[in-house]
């Protein structure tokens, strides 16, 4: 099952590579790749956060076994998203990068999301979990903050274009997933699985 999820999670990257070789990335390939990788980072973030509610609803720990891989794929696509902007959009030009950040502050919000994802990715191993003990759980609660900064990054970007339909859907999904962490709702979901 893990291998299947791993291969499925690589499909968005495979698609981009295929489109790149077949000249299918549209009139602005850099923008296409940047948007695609950003969207998939958000999709995998939603999937990661969905594992706990699914565990509560089904009373099965199978979901939790896939949470780490999904979270790492969110980090992977977020890193690609940033690398494309840094390399293909900014050409590693620090001055231009700073100008872009000042001109488009949503980039700062996206960068904060990526920085916050780093410690979660670095401590995603079982050995790190054992070494950190309770601190591991506290650290990995950063995922809730990341969900907020990521959606703000997306919303801020889309607000400039007055195109909030898609980002609203993601915001509602993330809000519902975060609500599942509220103790009362969490208890209700847990009870439902035992009925």
Automatic annotation (TrEMBL):
Subcellular localization, as worded in the UniProt entry: Cell membrane; Membrane
Main localization (coarse): membrane
GO biological process: protein repair
GO cellular component annotations of the record: plasma membrane
Listed cofactors: FMN; heme b
Family matches, as InterPro entries: Fe3_Rdtase_TM_dom, MsrQ-like
MF terms (GO), sorted A to Z: electron transfer activity; FMN binding; heme binding; metal ion binding; oxidoreductase activity, acting on diphenols and related substances as donors
Topology relative to the membrane: Multi-pass membrane protein
TM helices/strands, residue ranges: 38-57, 69-88, 108-127, 139-156, 168-185
Comment on bound cofactor: Binds 1 FMN per subunit. Binds 1 heme b (iron(II)-protoporphyrin IX) group per subunit.
Start and end residues of each Ferric oxidoreductase domain: 37-150
Keywords, ordered alphabetically: Cell membrane, Electron transport, Flavoprotein, FMN, Heme, Iron, Membrane, Metal-binding, Transmembrane, Transmembrane helix, Transport
Oligomeric form and interacting partners: Heterodimer of a catalytic subunit (MsrP) and a heme-binding subunit (MsrQ).
Family from the record: Belongs to the MsrQ family.
Role of this protein: Part of the MsrPQ system that repairs oxidized periplasmic proteins containing methionine sulfoxide residues (Met-O), using respiratory chain electrons. Thus protects these proteins from oxidative-stress damage caused by reactive species of oxygen and chlorine generated by the host defense mechanisms. MsrPQ is essential for the maintenance of envelope integrity under bleach stress, rescuing a wide series of structurally unrelated periplasmic proteins from methionine oxidation.
Protein name: Protein-methionine-sulfoxide reductase heme-binding subunit MsrQ
Protein source organism: Polynucleobacter duraquae
């Amino acid at each position: 099952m893990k291998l299947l999820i791993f291969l499925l999670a690589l499909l968005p990257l495979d698609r981009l590579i295929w489109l790149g070789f077949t000249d299918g990335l549209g009139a602005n390939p850099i923008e296409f790749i940047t948007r695609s990788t950003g969207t998939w980072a958000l999709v995998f973030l939603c999937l990661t956060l969905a594992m706990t509610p699914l565990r509560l609803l089904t009373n099965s720990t199978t979901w939790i076994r896939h949470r780490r891989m999904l979270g790492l794929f969110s980090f992977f696509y977020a890193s690609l998203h940033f690398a494309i902007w840094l390399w293909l959009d900014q050409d590693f030009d620090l001055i231009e990068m700073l100008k872009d950040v000042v001109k488009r502050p949503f980039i700062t919000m996206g960068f904060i999301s990526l920085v916050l994802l780093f410690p979660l990715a670095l401590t995603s191993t079982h050995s790190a979990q054992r070494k950190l003990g309770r601190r591991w759980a506290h650290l990995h609660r950063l995922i809730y903050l990341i969900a907020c900064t990521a959606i703000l990054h997306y919303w801020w970007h889309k607000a400039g274009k007055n195109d909030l339909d898609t980002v609203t859907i993601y915001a509602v999904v993330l809000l519902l997933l975060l609500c599942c962490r509220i103790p009362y709702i969490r208890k209700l979901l847990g009870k439902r699985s035992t009925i």
